[in-house]
Write a structure and sequence with these properties.
Layout (H helix, E strand, L loop, with lengths): L7 E5 L4 H12 L3 E6 L2 H13 L3 E6 L5 H14 L5 E4 L13 H25 L1 H6 L3 E5 L14 H21 L5 E7 L8 H6 L1 H9 L13 H8 L10 E4 L7
Parallel strand pairs: 1-2, 1-4, 2-3, 4-5, 5-6, 6-7
The structure holds nicotinamide-adenine-dinucleotide (NAD).
The site of nicotinamide-adenine-dinucleotide has 32 residues, from α1 and α4.
Length: about 260
């Protein structure tokens, strides 16, 4: 039997990269998908791909930084699709300005990255809290190796802080919601080849080399490398796992 049968799964940032791969993977495991993304067209295409493969999927346009819109979409999903039992908070952005860069750029990075990666995770989780409680649901947040600090892999303080926040939020919610039967975990991807870092990979081979040289598996990851951990954390395979971060980083953080 498919691992996610009878589940309704929301994936944010599902138009592209890791979120899209997770949504497709959940579809293969029998979940009914709700794809949310600020990129309405990309989310609709991903939903169509799931349906073409025999799955069930709907998409909705959503900017996760807009709290009221998150609440409105959660209501629409409840009315049109049903009770959500899995939430993947994946929507995220990254920029790599150092704290000592142009002050205007640093401030904008901070505001945009916090609004999306951290407040967006709060907004969507809060909006879907009722069905997640009612279904004894599972929340999967997307952290990073930047949920921990690394001097080898320079990143913006805003991104690193936001991903620490995602891990802190994961642990805090796991502690509070466990008694309701809701499990909350995170995934920590390493360098995964997606549009998020396409320009860095094209223009800064030195940075990519720093990552790969420190990765025991000796390669960058693909979005598909995150799908197995995401299925594990959403399914009964992980029935006694909560408050954890599963690193899917080719071993980066272990050495
Ligand atoms: N690619 C990596 O190396 C890597 C590593 C660690 C963590 N991550 C995390 O994985 C997640 C997915 O990243 P990705 O690499 O697949 O990037 P991506 O750019 O391919 O996909 C991100 C998706 O999020 C959507 N999005 C951005 N802002 C949004 C908003 N305000 N509201 C709704 N949707 C929004 C985008 O439209 C896009 O579809 C992010 O949280 C990222 O921080 C990525």
């Amino acid at each position: 039997m498919p691992l996610l049968q009878n589940h309704i799964a929301v994936v944010t940032g599902a138009a592209s990269g890791i979120g899209r791969a997770i949504a497709l993977g959940y579809g293969r495991e029998g979940a009914r998908l709700v794809l949310l993304d600020i990129n309405e067209k990309g989310a609709a295409e991903a939903a169509q791909e799931i349906r073409s493969a025999g799955g069930e999927a709907e998409s909705f346009a959503l900017d996760v930084t807009r709290r009221e819109d998150c609440i409105a979409v959660a209501k629409q999903v409840a009315d049109k699709v049903g009770q959500v039992s899995i939430l993947v908070n994946n929507a995220g952005i990254n920029r790599r300005n150092a704290f000592t860069a142009d002050p205007g750029a640093v401030l904008k990075d901070w505001q945009d990255i916090m609004a999306t990666n951290l407040n967006g995770t709060f907004n969507v989780t809060h909006a879907f809290l009722e069905p997640l409680l009612a279904s004894k649901g599972r929340i999967v947040n997307i952290g990073s190796i930047q949920s921990f600090v690394h001097v080898r892999t320079p990143n913006s303080p805003a991104y690193t802080t936001s991903k620490h926040g995602v891990l802190g939020f994961t642990r805090a919610l796991a502690a509070e919601l466990g008694k309701h039967g809701v499990r909350v975990n995170a995934i920590g991807p390493g360098l995964i080849e997606t549009p998020l870092n396409a320009s860095v990979r094209a223009n800064d081979p030195g940075l990519v080399k720093i990552f790969i040289d420190h990765t025991p598996l000796g390669r960058a990851g693909k979005p598909e490398d995150i799908v197995g951990p995401a299925i594990f954390l959403a399914s009964d395979l992980s029935s006694y796992v909560t408050g954890s971060i599963v690193m899917a980083d080719g071993g980066y953080r272990s050495i």
